[in-house]
Amino acid sequence: MVDLKVIATNIRQGIIKQISNAASGHPGGSLSGVEILTLLYFEVMKVDPKNPKDPKSDRFVLSKGHASPLLYATLAERGYFDKSELLTFRMINSKLQGHPDMKHTPGVDMSTGSLGQGLSAAVGMAMAGKLDKKDSKVYALLGDGELQEGIIWEAAMSASHYNLDNLVAFVDYNGLQIDGRCCDVMGSDPIDAKFEAFNWNVISISNGHDFDEIREGLSNIVKGKPNVLICKTIKGKGVSFMEDQVGWHGSAPNEEQTKQALAELGGTL
Amino acid sequence: MAVQTTFDFDQMLSSAKEAYGEELLKMAEEGFDFVFTYSDNVAPSTAAGKLTQNYPERCFNFGIAEPNQVGASAGLALAGEIVFAQVFGPFLPLRAADQIHTDIAYNDVNVRLIGTHSGVTAGGGPTHNDIADLALYRAIPNLTVVVPADAGQCRKIIRASMEYDGPMIIRIDRAGSPNVYADDNYEFTIGKAIETIEGTDVTIISTGSCIYECMMASKELQKDGLSVGVIDMHTIKPLDKNAIVKYSNKTGVVVTVEDHSINGGLGGAVAETLCEAGFCGKFKRIGMPDEFAVLGDPDEVYKYYGVERVGIAKTIRKMMSK
């Protein structure tokens, strides 16, 4: 039995190491989604790291593509590629670009980085799954800031119109975006009522860092309509000085900060 | 003459706008496996409408939401489907530019985006003009961009696309335009230009339904003793540069004609090619000038800007008189 907490900590270390080494990247929104991706890749999703293109596999779309360090650290931890490759993050010709590139990175099912586009692609994948009568599911992780993009709601409308119950979206509801608190920049609350109005089944998770609560939420997904789990999270979760700090949206830690972050996460450089 | 055109025959009007649907319907009936997406713009009476009625399980209406339609089409293709996505041209390249660039082209997926009513053919003024699309598409890697000259060629393109790997834009302009080719018995290869009329004095390089107007201008200029060749550059990307240089050097006088802005489209592509090849002859672009087009029926707009037989002939006479 895998210990999800240990894996989550390893992923957090991987996030910090990538961004610190590259001196560039998005730590806050990567750290907030760790438990969601850990649970998906180590317990929920049917995937085969040795055969990432297997058409029978579940698919995952990181719609908030700037959280690529989270996806890469998770994929490395899951065995899609060697963890040593994390240190090539954002380097020229690396397979680990600043935003996910499905043509070059094993396990990346959709290239993302332009906010909002990922959910539409996930809708298309889920439609194909229905058309081909596949058992597999399509999962997508959205940011709460990302919900300001209009295409999210075009996609949401089409997902319920076509009864895509093989689509499960997660909202990493950390409340921050680059310019400040989402509610101050462009309020998108109430998120749950919006998805409900778009005929989705909405599952609210009060602590998106609690595996049991996310697991229980997943047990409440319904047939006949798309499902969304709105997970309240803490941006920068796991590194004390980054938690709920808008400044860590897209800044890399320096050497001292990296040491401290890794020490808090029980790791070293 | 390289191919049999309608140059010397009476005209049959046909519509590439209808032909794509007819060919897709035929291919579905023949058992080809593909998905069709659209956005509240397929009339039930059309062939595409019949496709959606006869094969509802593989046809998806996305309503009035082009970016989501194009993004979801990419998702369908990523899951292994071959997707034909029909979009009203004026709302395709600009509304869904991000999805074309990032979801379709970057991922190099098998989506065929069919933009109808391209150029100024929709009428209704600049909100319904599609005159910047080629400029955008030319700058996006991985895209193949084809513009059928007539309905028969449109059918050839649709069918050829089933065997083609990677994303494709099929730009359909004027409906009910005359046939350029007398029959379907000519070789069509994506990326290879066709010499529809041979000429020794002037070379016109054109695309789409403008080809027919170029042929008629050529006919008119015969009266002046001018031999004007017409090249069907049906593929804008990848561009048949060898053909451009070959036919341009043959005459030393080159005119491009397109239902698109003169900036960044076929004319721009030909100019870049000729400049890099050291061409020193005469050159002129005919198309929509750098202004929002005047209001009017498409045929009036073409006349206003000289993007039809009379205007083309006039421009060429002027070039040759200098």
Report on this structure.
Chain A is built from ten helices and seven strands. By secondary structure, chain A is of the alpha/beta class. Chain A has one domain: Thiamin diphosphate (ThDP)-binding fold, Pyr/PP domains (Rossmann fold). Chain A has a five-stranded parallel sheet, sandwiched between helices. In chain A, strands 4-5 form a two-stranded antiparallel sheet. In chain A, α6 (150-161) links the parallel β2 and β3 (167-173). Chain B is an alpha/beta fold and 322 residues long. Chain B is built from eleven helices and 14 strands. In chain B, β2, α2 and β3 (59-61) form a beta-alpha-beta unit. Chain B is globular. The mean pLDDT of chain B is 95. At the A-B interface, α5 and α6 of A face α3 and α4 of B. Chain B: Belongs to the transketolase family. Chain B: This is Transketolase. Chain B: Keywords: Thiamine pyrophosphate. Chain B: Its cofactor is thiamine diphosphate.
Identify the notable features of this structure and list them briefly:
heterodimer; A: 269 residues; alpha/beta; Rossmann fold; five-stranded parallel β-sheet; two-stranded antiparallel sheet; 10 helices; B: 322 residues; seven-stranded mixed β-sheet; five-stranded mixed β-sheet; 11 helices; thiamine pyrophosphate (chain B); Transketolase-like_Pyr-bd (chain B); Transketolase_C (chain B)
